[in-house]
Amino acid sequence: MPCPEIADNMSSLVDDSLSFSRQVRQEIDEQVQRAPNSNYDMTLSSIIHVISAQYTQNTTNSWVTIEHRLHDLWYIVIQAAKSIEPLNPAQDTLIRHIMLMKALGRLRRASSALSPTIANKGPAGFSDGAELWSGLPLLAKDLTEEFSTYRYYQDTVYDTDKRKNLAAFIGRLLSVGLYDGSALCALSLFRETLETPRPLVADESSEPTPDTQWVIEDLIYPLHHLVIASDFSLTILSSKRSAAVAVTASTVNPADHPHLAGLGELAVQAGIPSSSTGFSPDRWRFWIQRLEELAQCGINHVAGDATSCLTVMQMAQEDTMLL
């Protein structure tokens, strides 16, 4: 058990870290609100530099403090991705920053900078086991939490644009070979869109309004809120057409995340084997079948987005020899 002085110092560091995080997040929220498609270069470059310096040189920062900074970094990236339109080059700039981080490789700490607590962490040290920067620690965790929880089940019923923007960003991550987290997000999106029973469009008599006191967690999104996100994610990815290899290339095992990767109700009813986690051939064929049905649903905006998704998925199926 640490002595009281060390415990007090650690508590103070954590409190300072949380205060700094609140300030950073408030500033980025205000920037997103003020100028959604603004340039985040200086903000990201600055925090990347701070994290690298804290990790390699500064013994006064606990591992918890550095993890807080990493969560702040990914918060900035994710909030920016949600605010930037799919075809805006600023999304590519976000990807460039992440690729530059990864290119820095594994940072090493000088032996004089290693406190016993940090030294005992081993070569990785972060709670997800990833190394800085080669493993982009905590990105997969923060991205999947944001995309799966916030995107589907909380107060985002009116955030169609944010959902679409983030889905396009996921497609970009996959297209440059950044699979950890992003592959699971894409799989979750297809599961929610094509394997989960949903009304095609909202029932105007029951859909909530901003003044309605509904428990949003109980709301079932109509399918048209999600299929357009799938369309943008797939369209961005189609230049590489590598969705089928995304899960196998990821170090994140979909079987460990059944609420994201497990078969949805419609897939189970269709007899898809329970072992078909990931982008399996059986599952891919089921998705195509569902999109074929939706393309004939008679509701123009749903049918149009479904047709666009269908075209890309059929090309991906041919290129990856899934059949």
From TrEMBL:
Pfam families membership: DUF3632
UniProt-listed InterPro entries: OpdG (IPR022085), Oxopyrrolidines_Biosynth-assoc (IPR053204)
Cross-referenced PANTHER family: NUCLEAR PORE COMPLEX PROTEIN NUP85-RELATED, TRANSCRIPTION FACTOR DOMAIN-CONTAINING PROTEIN
Protein name: Nuclear pore complex protein Nup85
Upper taxonomic lineage: Eukaryota, Fungi, Dikarya, Ascomycota, Pezizomycotina
